Amino acid sequence: MKLKVKKILFAFTVIVGVSTFVQCKNDTSKGEATTANETPVSGKTSILVEESIYPIVEDVVSLFEYEYDRVSIELIKKSENEILDLIYKDSLRLAVLPRILDSLEVSDFKGKVVPKMTYFANDAIVFISSKNNKDSIIDYELLVSELQSGSINKDKLLIFDNVNSSISKHFRELANVKDLSSSQVYYLSDTQQVIEYVNKNPNAIGVIGLNWLVQPSENIRVDLDNIKVLGVKNPKDNKYYKPSQKNIGEGNYPLSRKLYLLDFQGKSGLGMGFASYIAGYKGQRIVLKSGLAPFIVHPREVIVRKNIE
């Protein structure tokens, strides 16, 4: 991921014209930054990140710290349930999740703080399999029906990243069941393990977040060479779509999901500054380059000049 971030840094500098003073910052000023009083563009904080969408947040934080050298952000990778538990316990006050809080969850903070939820990108839940698997498409509504009835094809094994992840929770909610049978699904600990398992088992179908495919870490690149992404049936037109930026942005891919930064700080701190950055022009350019779909594509300003004879 470090090599990828370096490449993004170079491209990003060309696109948005990072000012020359950024290039002149030294290690001394960076050291002072971590102990500075917290403001929207200075100080030190931690952000909880749902594991399935970690890569995009890591990239944006790297560039945010690069541009504002008095900022130091620690990213903590957790499952959705673990993140909510830590937030409710007031252990940490910033989180990134692939959903907003529902009205009941928001009511838990009544009288304490009003959660600020900033929508910044569109990700997707994707199905992956080994290239040796004969299937290249999947009907997720039929799959949900099979999960409900417990009659899933015995030759098909669904592999989830984590029993407490947002992805496995999503399918339990779709199937309206509390638990999925161990004969139907298999839970691992993270996305990397799912990719490795699917690579070695032709009949397995992994269910993961798109973010790890468009921004893979170095240690899974080899496994991805033997992985294919399945097309998913859209019940609105009965056509099958791959999770491309275009299909997600236009709403054709049926399992897209919105990403949010949740801020429980209740003050003008780094949470507010990072939210403005990730949802602003620069953050949205990073999202666009990452392979995910930004929530808004900022228009370019075009200056037309007449030739002077």
What is the overall number of helices? 14
| Shape type | globular
User: What's the alpha carbon Rg, rounded to whole Å?
Assistant: 21 Å
Total tally of structural domains = 2
Q: CATH superfamily of the largest domain, please?
A: Periplasmic binding protein-like II
The biggest sheet, with number of strands, parallel, antiparallel or mixed sense and barrel status, is: 10 strands, mixed
Instruction: State the low-pLDDT regions, or none.
Output: 12-31, 298-309
Order of helices and strands: HHHEHEHEHEEHEHEHEHHEEEHEHHE
Q: How many beta-strand segments?
A: 13
What would you call the structural class?
alpha/beta
User: What CATH architecture label of the largest domain applies?
Assistant: 3-Layer(aba) Sandwich
As a percent range, the share of helical residues equals 25-40%
- Name of the CATH class of the largest domain: Alpha Beta
What proportion of the residues form beta strands (DSSP E)? Answer: 15-25%
CATH topology of the largest domain: D-Maltodextrin-Binding Protein, domain 2
The first-to-last residue Cα distance is 50 Å
Could you tell me the mean pLDDT?
85
Organism: Myroides guanonis
Protein name: Phosphate ABC transporter substrate-binding protein, PhoT family
Domain PBP: 35-279
Pfam families: PBP_like_2
